[in-house]
Every structure is written in C-alpha cells, then in structure tokens.
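Form 7-S
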Amino acid sequence: MINRREILRLGLTGFSSLALSDLMRLRACAAEPQRTAIILVWLRGGASHLETFDCKPLASSDYRGPFQPIDTNVPGIQICELLPRLSKIADKYALLRSMSHTGGGHPAGSLQVLAGDDDPQDKIKPVLPDWMSIASHLRRDSRRSIPNYVAVNPIDNYDSFTIAGSTYLGPSAEPFKVFGDPSSPTFEVPNVGLKDERQLQVLNARSSLKVSLDRLPRVADQSGVMQAVDRIDQQALDLLTNPVARKAFDLTQEPDAVRDRYGRNQWGQQCLMARRLVEAGVDIVATEFDGPLCGRVQNWDDHAVNQHVFDALQFRLPTLDQAVSALIEDVYARGLDQRVLVVVTGEFGRTPRISYVASSGGGVASAPAGTVQPGRDHWPQANSMLFAGGGIRTGQVIGATDKRGEGPVERRVGPGDFLATIYRHLGIDYKTAAVTNFAGRPVPIVDVGDAIPELAG
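Output:
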C-alpha cells in the first residue's frame, strides 16, 4: 500500500512512472477513509478440503483422490492441480486448514459456521441470526443510500431447511436479494434505479404523501414493527432513486475484457458484481456458488449416490478457480485489499475415506443410475477456508490436519473463532457486542471464540 510519505514524494516527482495498479492504490489512499467490507463466497453443500486446499498425496489409495498437489508462488504452499490460477496468487491469500466443528448435517453445519449455533442437530430454521444480518444490524446507517448487505444468489435454504436469516433482528437486517444469472444477456436487477425522470418525480411525490398519511398511526405503534417497515420502505425508495446503486448493479459498465477475465458464467459474474458492490459502499456481500455449474445435483454435496465426486470437482473447480482468482486480483489491483476481506468456504469438508455407492441417476458428473461410483460424505471434523485482502498477513497456511486429512493436529479453530475474525475486520467489538432476542434479552454475538491472531492486519 502506498503510504503518506510516498504520496508526498510523488507529489514532488510526478506520477508518470506509476503503473495503473499504483494509481488505483494511490486513489484509494488519498480518498476519505472507507468502511471495511466483506465478500463471502459460500460453497453450499461443503467442498472437499482434500481436493482443494489440503491435498494428501501420501495417503493410501482408499483415501487419496486422483488429483495431485501443485506448487504455488509461495514456497512451501501447495494446492490442488485443478486450481492453477489460484496457485499463481497464493501471496494474496491465507489458507486456514484446521476449521473443525460438530455440525454433521447441512443445516447444523451451516448454522454453526454462519451463526455460531453449537447445536449438532439440524433445525428447520435458525434460532440465532447469521453474522451477515448481525453486522448489517450493528452497522446500519440511515444516512446511507445503498444497502449495507446484499446477497447475490442468496445463502438462505438447503432443501426444506433455512440455513441463514435475521431471526429476532427482524426484516430490516435481511439483505437486498439478487436472483438470477448475471451472465445472461437479459439479466436485470428489479427495483433498482429509475431511468425515467418523470417516473422519479411521481415516485418522490407519492413517497412524501405516504409519509404524511402514515405519521399519525405510527405514533400508536409500540412494537417496532412499523419502524422496521419504514426502514425497508426507505431502502426500496433509495434503490429506486439512487444512480450509484443502479450503476453498481449494472455489469455492462465493465469492459468486456474484465467480464471475460471473471468468466462469462453465473459464478464469475456474481463475483464481479460483488466487487462492484463493495466498491460502491456495500458492507457485506454474500454470494453462493451452486446451480448447474456444480453438476447434476447442483451443489457441493458429493456423496457417491449424488455424483462422481472426482468428475464433479473436475467439472466445477476450473470455474471457481477463474472467478475467485479474478476477484482476488481485482481487490488488490483496485486498492481495495486493506478494507475488503474475501472469504471462501462452505459448511464443512468431506470424508477423507472414499466411499463407493450406486448412483441414483445420471447427468453431469454422475454415471447412470445403478453404477457404482466414488464419493465423499459430510465431514465437519476438518475443513479449509480461504481469506484474501482485508489487510491480513497473506501467503501463509494456518493450522494443519493429519496425514489423511481427518482432523486438525495443529491450531484447531472453531466457528466462534471464525465469527470473531469476521467481526474484528468489520470493526465490531465481538467481546462486548450483543443483540436483543425475542424475549428482550441481550445475546452475545460471539459466545465462545477469539479472532484468529494470524489473520490480524
């Protein structure tokens, strides 16, 4: 990062020798201090840590997959050969290889990682708000005209289970949700930005009238519900009238070369939109990688009954590799690396021992029904996470699992530590902050855990 002394030196000697990336950093440094932000890339279903960031090439054949580790640009750090782009920028991220918890089902695992709920049992819906909603609630600023929490392909459900939500914080802490495929030529975010000036005038007039008519009934409201509705109404109005918001969601503003670099597909364009949103001032962007780009069952749940785990990973990881590497490179090139933290994770890892079960149906990355194929099952005992930007110390690996990848043998980390790390980056005092539940009682935002010191700025 260019410091103030460097700015003064450049002011005397001129800017002609600066590269574009230096100019981006200089602009970011010279601007007014900006709020920290987080982009969460969620791998719904749980990606295999063994075929991504924690390869075990020396394990026996009943554990070891077909893919080999490759060197990165940081000596001593290796990742899976299916991630060649990420291997070239390992100096820009840190890997945590020792996340471990007790949530063996998708709902329980998600609620542990996203909300800190330590119950190992699955729930139909969460009882605690997720960290995104809590951060949105605690960092709410009524003066801002753009949402502070946006979900691009939201993290919300797993089958009939709700895996994230604001619970007792209410609807005002929920994200502005963007659905659909941003790579589609017909994609458009509804209810953002009115282009017609006449429509804008009519909307403002109606809004003023509504405020006047609503003022009297609001006095009698004691529940706070109407106050939440008012905030949602105001956010909707801001989105409709704010040109900054319209531009932030408009990917056609980006050069073709940039869109191509992220990948002209749903995941690539989701990541590009996430970068545009944090650049426009959004605090939290959550984006989920699932759907057709995952293969037959459209998620990362690589049981053998669902799909051939190794065919599925070979199908989807190049897309993730391109999208996430482009996002990380852009965060650094555009001078966002001190304030924007990128996190890539799912709810858990996969079983180190390979299972073999008959497929339930054919399709992308799955053999015809009845064909025995390899899979990996749920494994909350070990998972890997990627952290980039955020002013953290990058080019490092934190923690280690045993020779089979079954569990941490060094620097075990739990969901509470992960959440504390997130809050620390967002400037929230996780040791003292609390939110009020339905009973009116304060609930600590982190019950057990401390921010990971190796990821400090």
